[in-house]
Design brief:
59 residues, two-stranded antiparallel ribbon
């Protein structure tokens, strides 16, 4: 969850500019890394599994 800090010192400013965002926690980084690792394993393994199934059906 990102936390934004807005500069409200200028009352005539029509738009708010985001100055900083909160750093991601270690748990969020670890979860994202695990999610991408699972996606990579599925992307690499799916063609092999599909090939085994096709060869099993046709043989």
């Amino acid at each position: 969850m990102a936390v934004r800090h807005f500069d409200l010192s200028e009352p005539t400013s029509a738009r708010l500019s985001a100055l900083t965002s909160a750093p991601r926690s270690r748990r969020d980084v670890r979860r994202a890394r695990q999610r991408w690792m699972v996606a990579g394993v599925v992307a690499v393994g799916a063609p092999f599994v599909a090939t085994v199934i096709v060869l099993g059906v046709t043989h």
